[in-house]
What we know:
CATH superfamily of the largest domain: NAD(P)-binding Rossmann-like Domain
Number of domains: 2
Amino acid sequence: MRVGIVGLGAMGMGAAQSCVRTGLETVGCDLSADARAAFEAAGGTAVSSVAEMGHLDAVMILVVNAAQTEAVLFGENGLAEKLPKGAVVLAGATTAPEYPPTVAARLEALGLQFIDAPVSGGAAKAMAGSMTIMAAGSGAAFQKGGALLDAIAEKVYKIGDTPGQGATIKMINQLLAGVHIAAMAEAFALASRAGADLETVYEVISNSAGGSWMFQNRGQSIVDGDYAPKSAVDIFVKDLGIVLDAGRSMTFPLPLSAAAHQQFLAASAGGLGRENDSAVVKVFQKLTGIDLPNTEKPE
């Protein structure tokens, strides 16, 4: 089986290397020469354009958003026109739930199969081949893409047969993830102002009722003062925007999501959009002058 991964970023690189480790002939595609070199060093074949990917039985698209997914599949020299009949496309980006059904219909017209397959778990789980995937598609599509899914995920939840159902569950996940990160940042900011040792805060709360997966995962970044992007601030500007758009369309109030979204917007407006999403804590530093490890106070 020959598979492809489009997007060798934090999640895509791990997914692609997991495919190689399980013995799948794997082609990775990315615009970054450094990413391509890293994937080739891991035993894969790397290309800079989807036009160069060749015959694929299954392909996972792990890009940032719907616009990039659209460009990969249907843009100039897009992948959809080059895949053999019966191949399956898995779309891993977080998008609005109404987008996957449109992709499925267009691919079906070309004789291709589709799985709405947003992913979760972070870079470490991607590299370990243990992501969680919230997937929706036909039984035939799951059968065709089974080897690829097995290689990259520990848990594959088949949400239903209709594309868009996976995106809906991922939207709910991102609501919680974004609110948890914003709350975690607020807690660390208050701890700093109160004079608490942040390493102690991290250790105690990680083992107490107030902890969460996001607290443990992103809190370490704040304690270390390391904001190298794994999942950027701007990702949650986008994802919480999807959540709020859905709420508006259903006339459904989302006060916590809205407050968290404003915090990420503030961080992005302050020039932090490409830093790790935990950098939302720096909004409090700009406002109040709190001490944060390995960061300079704003003038």
